[in-house]
Specification:
Number of domains: 2
CATH class of the largest domain: Mainly Beta
CATH topology of the largest domain: Immunoglobulin-like
Radius of gyration: 31 Å
Strand content: over 45%
Distance between the termini: 77 Å
Number of helices: 1
Largest sheet: 5 strands, antiparallel
Length: 181
């Protein structure tokens, strides 16, 4: 590239610049912001990779509990919880009915809700066609209860009886019981 030289009392240009260095290291280093740590077990019983500072967070992957470092101690501040709980439950159907009860705190980390629950199910363990319905779930305290009523077709319909595995998918959803169509 040819070298260009322009001289003017107001402006001087001496060819193209090959490199520009800008210093951004100005001022004193401030205190770091909060950090998030993840581990298995209580944060007070573990070696955290850095000395914790106020407002640091710690997630216990064993139970999804979230702790915050406040006043020189780890304080439980919440629980990360899924919005859908999936389980395969072994149950006994008697006279075509099986009852279920789950603690919503164990499932979702909540103790109350104004929302309804959406429950999907699949009964496993038979080659015969099965027809089943689920009763409307009820919540008393933190106990969510419902029943599945089932019939099996083997020549004719009869109440489901015996041991079966039931796949359940329980979600927190909208309570549409008072909805107007």
């Amino acid at each position: 590239m040819p070298e260009v030289v322009v001289i003017d009392p107001e402006l001087s240009v001496y060819g193209p610049v090959e490199e520009i260095t800008v210093s951004v290291d100005i001022g004193q280093t401030g205190t770091r912001g909060s950090k998030q740590f993840v581990g298995s077990g209580l944060p007070s019983s573990l070696t955290i990779p850095e000395t914790p500072l106020p407002n640091d967070l710690y997630l216990n992957v064993d139970n999804s509990y979230l702790y915050q470092y406040i006043s020189s101690t780890w304080t439980l501040v919440g629980k990360f919880a899924p919005t859908t709980y999936n389980i395969v439950e072994g149950v006994t159907f008697a006279s075509g009915s099986a009852n279920f009860s789950f603690d919503i705190f164990d499932m979702f980390g909540i103790t109350e809700t104004d929302s309804g629950f959406i429950i999907q199910h699949n009964i496993i363990g038979t080659t015969d066609p099965i027809a089943s319905v689920i009763t409307k779930p009820t919540l008393v305290g933190t106990d969510l209860s419902f029943s599945i009523k089932g019939k099996s077709l083997s020549g004719s319909w009869s109440n489901l009886s015996g041991n079966y595995d039931v796949m359940l998918s329980i979600s927190i959803g909208e309570d549409n019981s008072n909805a107007v169509s």
